[in-house]
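Worked example

This section walks through a single chain of length 97. The input is the sequence exactly as stored; nothing has been trimmed or padded.
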Amino acid sequence: MAKFYIKHLTKYTYNNTVIDAANLIRLHPLNDDYQKVISHTISVTHNAYIQQFIDFYNNTFGTFMITEPHKELFIESVVEVDTFNKMFPNDSSPIDE
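Given that input, the structure is written out below as tokens.
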């Protein structure tokens, strides 16, 4: 088992002031038999509320709006996960034709 601490930062800088920003983010870690999410936070400029959804493939994604004028947008994801060994199939045998 290995523990990982991951910090991801996305930064947008605009030449002009942005007055309306609609965004979709895919920064939510997978929580399954091989990876357990211990903690996860996402912070966005202006403390935007992030609404979460589940897509067709069972992945979590988020959307948010920023209506305050801004010239920069920061999105930060901080994750702590425990990972577990995963057995991969033995592919050293020849394929029967």
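What to look for: The longest strand covers residues 2-18.
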